[in-house]
Amino acid sequence: MEPSDQVGLLDLPDELLLKIVSCRVITVQDLGRGAATCTRLRNVIATQDLWRKKIEQYYPKVWDQLPSNAGIQDWRQEVQIMKQLEVDVHKLVSSLSLRLYQHLHLTTPVYAEIDALVSSGTYTPIYIINILRQIVDDGEQYDNMTNKYYALRVMSHVHQGACRREWEEFVARPSAEQSLEVGAILMARWFQPHADISIKQMQAHVSDHMELFCSATELMSLLTPNDRSIQELLLRIYYTLEIHYDRIVAGCHRLLTQGPSTIIEEMLADCERILESQKDVPRPISPNPRYREVSYAIGMVMQHKRYHYTCVIFGWDRECRMPSDWVQRMGVYNLLYKTKQPFYNVLVYDGSHRYAAQENLEIAPDPRPITHSDVGKYFKKFNGTHYIPNTELEQEYPEDEPVRNELLRTRGCSRGVCYSTTTSAPKPATPPEDSNDCGLFSFRPAFLQKLANIKIFVFLLSVLVTIQQALASGYLNSVITTIEKRYEIPSSLTGVISSMYEIGNVITVIFVSYLGSKRRIPVWIGVGCCVMGIGSMLFVMPQLISDRWSIELETINDTDSKHICRNARVRDDTSERLSDLGFGTLPDLSKGVPLGSHNSIQYGKPDNCIKGSRSNVMPVLFFMLAQLLLGAGGSPLFTLGTTYIDDHVKRESSSMYIGILGEGNQSSPFLSSSASGGGFSEVTVVPVATAGPCYYPCNTIMPFMILLFFMCTVVAISQMPLLMIVLRSVDEEERSFALGVQFVIFRLIAYIPAPIMFGSVIDSTCLLWKSSCGEKGGRCLIYDIEAFRFR
């Protein structure tokens, strides 16, 4: 053919050109470029039938959903609208991961943007749903999962909004125009927003859906606008689907004006909270530092050892952060490491979110994708062995990727299979920093773990409390008079010694209760026991370093006759002093009692003038220092021990276990007093009755004991409720500190000043002080009983 005989594209008639550009291989972009070449092509391409054909070719689902009487005049403009919507929708979906990572639901601003796009044209809801469905169906199932996740969330909102408008139009029609098939389709599309259900498809299978149409008709007969139950049902559907929170709030207020409802009130409060949280500006994602005790990483597919479900990790905590009632309900304290171990947020294949302890998880031997609707919120792809986190999750756990890769490499995971011979996690070289297993430092053998029981802990702590209270309170109180005699100490000074225990406790309890509550409570208690042991040894030191204690009545050697006259003078002086106090006189030794051998006669006054007086400074200092150490060492027992027990038992059993601890505290004075009641030395019989105070029987001892019993009972009954009120009235991490502050207040107001004040009051009733060489001594010999009673 000659060149002059060749026919160009523009030589073809318009009808043939229209046929060519209408072919499926000619895309919308090709039409745009062709229209820019010449006027004739532009005129051909501007034909409305061409653009209507292109919508049918490239957007078949949109074409199926457009009504036959759509009344669209400019099909080319509709294509342009769809192309612009593609850009806007992709931009919106891509931005949602960063904006909604810290939210559980779509926020009000996001709803506003979606509604603005939807309202931009008559058929834009159909176009937007088609675009979102393309995003969901694009590529492999486990690629680009984050965008697919948010596309589904947006699609649900747009789809149900469109269904709502269609339903309102359907209900507004006359009954004769309401089609059973259309109503059934609307109901099916409402409850299945992700399903591709169209009226044309369903009309082709009407005979297969007669049962569905019947059920839909029954449901439609109930949908009356004035029926409260139907309105409440609709709000609950919104709430379940996590959409239209503003409509839920308005509807709840309207229903509550008609009458109270607990369900409506709870739903209203939750939706108002969600709407309020949506107003918050998202905080920057802060990196979560990784700790050595965390064995696993985000994105790993795990298997639960006990319940055998498969899950994927999307977050973790260094230790359990759930409230105590959840911990009790889930039986966390039955685990080996209890709450002091890493806990993982996981998505389970059954669609649930769970919080699993590290010791209950193991790497899944056969990793498979997790069919959970929220997987795309945190991960962008599944590569056969694990999930790859999206940008936001990776920013939150930046150090997890090398750990995850190393774990999978060492376990030989590839192509969806892990070939390791064991499915357990690599155990750390040392247990977690605050683990509850038994041992010393890194020595924690398995046979000792049988003792890792809260009952054993309560028993041992009760023994410690009993010993501590016996040393600090019971034993000291039972031997206080002996100490006064032994070291010539007045009651006011022994009161100071007794108060030193409380002073030592006050000095340390605030620091111990605050710092000890953070970590290693048993270690703090053990250190306190060591300090108490040092204090106990110091308490014995005065007995070891002092001279041997001689009995108060001294034997006079008869070989030295010069004491005979002196002894008579001492006796006469004592008799006169007792006579002045109203106790009568002693019989004359020269008349009533033969002197005989001087070795057999004992006298009431030691020869201090001859032997010299003893100093009591060093014993008192030892006693005070010992009491300080006993108080400091005992401060962790009740403050930290109480909260440790409360953490490791059921809430309803906490008061019983703490009461057992208090029983050891109360029984210690009885045990220590019994142990100190047998000290006797060189008991002799006076040959002749001596003058002195007569025995007065105490006839009111029983009423006094009964009254004291009731008073102690009332105090004991109130102790445990008051303690539990403190434990339940503050945050869990501040319980030990709150108990420490309470104990400080008790000691400053009562326990410290009381012994000092009572010692001074007792000394003020003294009638006869022991004297040495005519000077007042350190202790009282005789008290004024009447004054003692009323002071």
Automatic annotation (TrEMBL):
What GO biological process terms are annotated to this protein in UniProt? sodium-independent organic anion transport
Which UniProt keywords are present, listed alphabetically? Disulfide bond, Membrane, Transmembrane, Transmembrane helix
- Hemimethylated DNA-binding domain location, by residue? 293-390
InterPro entries in the cross-refs: F-box-like_dom_sf, F-box_dom, Hemimethylated_DNA-bd_dom, Hemimethylated_DNA-bd_sf, MFS_trans_sf, OATP
Pfam families tied to this protein = F-box-like (PF12937), OATP (PF03137), YccV-like (PF08755)
- Listed GO MF terms: DNA binding; sodium-independent organic anion transmembrane transporter activity
Q: Which domain of life is it from?
A: Eukaryota
Its transmembrane ranges are 456-480, 492-515, 521-541, 620-645, 701-727, 739-762
Q: What is this protein called?
A: Putative solute carrier organic anion transporter family member 3A1 isoform X2
Source organism per entry reads Penaeus vannamei
Which classification does the entry list for the species?
Eukaryota, Metazoa, Ecdysozoa, Arthropoda, Crustacea
